[in-house]
């Protein structure tokens, strides 16, 4: 049989991996992976908290209705975790591992419901487990994975609201949206896609008889999630609004320096980062879109309709951040929820494509020896779906194992310089050196030293790793930088903090000229050993005089 003839082969659906239809297998796989991650975090993880994690921990020990740059979700989650598990890296990071499990199960449930092939559920969860981005986020306690988990729960609930005549699904939709806003405000970008879909496809929807009343209930529940953020901002002069405007580099923001002119590299870099983030799973998603739109099932909730729903749900976040790149530099993880939304399509493309590959393999093996070449690189048959899936597995395994011990990877010739191991390991070393400087100051001055950092992330790491977990101060906004949460707490705001005048201090970052007006004398010590960022020298300050020497 020639390759031309093989193009006309139609595989019987469901021939590949029939065992994957079981929901119990999905749950078992996610449970095993989650338990393994928790065991690693508890006993084998050698890496201290990165700056963002430490800063969110700082939030968690001063609970508020909201915070300067984000909602309170991550702080509340960490506070609950360390309350049960104790204050340590494990307690801080458990919410990340649990969020990874929730996100995987939500994607599996959505894929099973929407793609009309229960096998898609298992492989949607498998794509989450194998994705390097989601693997890393499951080990680091940032806002991204809890936010994605809420986003995917909302997408799943929305599908059931619109195509399963669900009643409880409306409550789930409102709760997921409200909870998502507590982690990241861009959860609301899901709404435009859902609204456009509902309006454009209203004739194909299957709604509960009391859908309008249930919609009002969902809105009310979602507003409960938004309320803490709004109330806190109204009480504190809307700092989050100023922060977001500053992030965009527009008037009214919290960035004092002039805005940089637009560079096409901002947009091009963002687009390239999205391609890199999608990787082989993105290829599977494109295959899934094509297969779903060509599917012969024309029912109102078939794969074709599911593809339209998922594409519209994902589109607003990609479009929004693409527009943002015309006024500010973007970051790869900004649109990660959009990538997550397309994973059910990747799973659908995978199972349908592998059905065809399975049939091709059977037909090829039935041919007499010597068998003809049917593959691109190998003699046996190969298909784009099969290649993309095997690449996904390979990259997922290598990345998953490698990120458990990146210090080992950093020792490999030609690879080590690309592994940011210093960023992951410097916190405890730096804190140890700062602790030594504190003790040296204490013995020389017979006074109680304190610590000021120009950067909020370094201040947070010092607060976590210094003995006794002391109050650490941040000088960013006083030295021409951005404001941060430290400026809003009376006990950490250098403008309002009491009991500091006359005391010595360890000073991290900035320049000697910036520190000199605040102290009787400033001593330059160079940089801490193992410092991974340039421009972060350390100084000793003697005789604190207050801000501006007042």
Describe, in plain words, how this protein is organized in 3D.
This protein has 550 residues and is mainly α. It folds into 2 domains: 3-350, no CATH class; 422-549, Peroxisomal Thiolase, Chain A, domain 1 (3-Layer(aba) Sandwich), CATH 3.40.47. Helices cover 58% and strands 5% of the residues. The chain contains 20 helices and 5 strands. It has a 5-stranded mixed sheet with strand order 2-1-3-5-4, with helices on one face. Helix 5 crosses helix 15 (336-365). The chain is globular, with a radius of gyration of 27 Å.
By secondary-structure content and strand pairing, the structural class works out as: mainly alpha
Helix tally equals 20
Largest sheet: 5 strands, mixed
The value of Rg in angstroms is 27 Å
Strand arrangement in the largest pleated sheet: 2-1-3-5-4
Unreliable stretches (pLDDT < 50, length at least 5) are: 1-6
Number of domains: 2
Number of strands: 5
- The quaternary organization reads as single chain
Average of pLDDT: 90
Fraction in helix: 55-70%
Tell me the fraction of residues in β-strands, as a range: under 5%
Based on Cα principal axes, name the global outline: globular
Q: What is the string of helix and strand elements?
A: HHHHHHHHHHHHHHHHHHEHEEHEE
Q: How far apart, in Å, are the first and last alpha carbons?
A: 88 Å
In short:
The chain contains 20 helices and five strands. The protein is mainly α.
């Amino acid at each position: 049989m020639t390759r031309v003839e093989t193009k006309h082969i139609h595989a019987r659906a469901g021939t590949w991996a029939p065992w994957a239809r079981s929901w119990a297998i999905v749950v078992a796989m996610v449970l095993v992976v989650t338990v393994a991650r928790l065991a690693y975090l508890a006993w084998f993880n050698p890496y201290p908290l990165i700056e963002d994690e430490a800063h969110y921990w700082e939030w968690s020990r001063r609970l508020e209705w909201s915070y300067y740059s984000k909602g309170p979700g991550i702080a509340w989650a960490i506070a609950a975790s360390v309350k049960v598990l104790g204050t340590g890296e494990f307690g801080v990071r458990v919410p990340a591992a649990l969020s990874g499990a929730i996100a995987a199960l939500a994607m599996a449930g959505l894929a099973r419901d929407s793609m009309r092939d229960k096998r898609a559920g298992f492989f949607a969860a498998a794509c989450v487990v194998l994705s390097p981005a989601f693997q890393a986020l499951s080990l680091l306690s940032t806002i991204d994975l809890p936010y994605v988990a809420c986003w995917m729960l909302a997408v799943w609930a929305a599908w059931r609201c619109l195509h399963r005549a669900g009643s409880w699904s409306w409550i789930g939709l409102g709760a997921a949206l409200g909870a998502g806003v507590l982690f990241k405000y861009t959860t609301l970008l899901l709404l435009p896609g859902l609204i456009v879909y509902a309006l454009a496809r209203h004739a194909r929807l299957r709604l509960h008889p009391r859908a309008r009343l249930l919609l009002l209930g969902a809105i009310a529940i979602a507003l409960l999630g938004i309320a803490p953020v709004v109330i806190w901002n109204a009480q504190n002069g809307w700092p989050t609004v100023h922060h977001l405007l500053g992030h965009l580099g527009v008037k009214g923001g919290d960035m004092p320096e002039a805005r940089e002119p637009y560079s096409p590299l901002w947009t091009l870099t963002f687009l390239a980062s999205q391609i890199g983030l999608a990787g082989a799973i993105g290829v599977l998603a494109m295959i899934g879109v094509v297969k779903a739109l060509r599917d012969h099932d024309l029912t109102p909730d078939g794969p074709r309709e599911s593809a339209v729903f998922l594409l519209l749900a994902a589109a607003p976040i990609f479009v929004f951040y693409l527009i943002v790149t015309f006024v500010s530099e973007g970051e790869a993880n900004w649109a990660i929820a959009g990538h997550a939304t397309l994973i059910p399509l990747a799973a659908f493309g995978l199972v349908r494509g592998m059905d065809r590959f399975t049939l091709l393999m059977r037909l090829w093996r039935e041919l007499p020896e010597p068998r003809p070449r049917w593959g691109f690189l190998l003699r046996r048959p190969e298909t784009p779906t099969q290649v993309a899936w095997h690449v996904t597995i390979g990259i997922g395994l290598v990345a998953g194992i490698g990120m458990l011990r990146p210090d080992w990877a950093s020792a490999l010739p030609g690879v080590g310089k690309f592994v940011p191991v210093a960023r992951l390991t410097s916190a405890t070393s730096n804190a140890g050196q700062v602790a030594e400087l504190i003790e040296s100051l204490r013995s020389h001055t017979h006074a109680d030293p304190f610590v000021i950092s120009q950067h909020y992330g370094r201040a947070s790491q010092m607060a976590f790793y210094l003995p006794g977990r002391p109050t650490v101060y941040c000088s960013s906004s006083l030295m021409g930088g951005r404001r941060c949460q430290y400026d809003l707490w009376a006990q950490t705001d250098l403008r309002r903090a009491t009991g500091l005048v006359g005391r010595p201090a360890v000073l991290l970052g900035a320049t000697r000229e910036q520190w000199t007006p605040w102290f009787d004398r400033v001593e330059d010590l160079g940089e801490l050993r193992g410092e991974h960022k340039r421009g972060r020298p350390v100084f000793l300050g003697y005789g604190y005089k207050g801000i501006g020497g007042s």
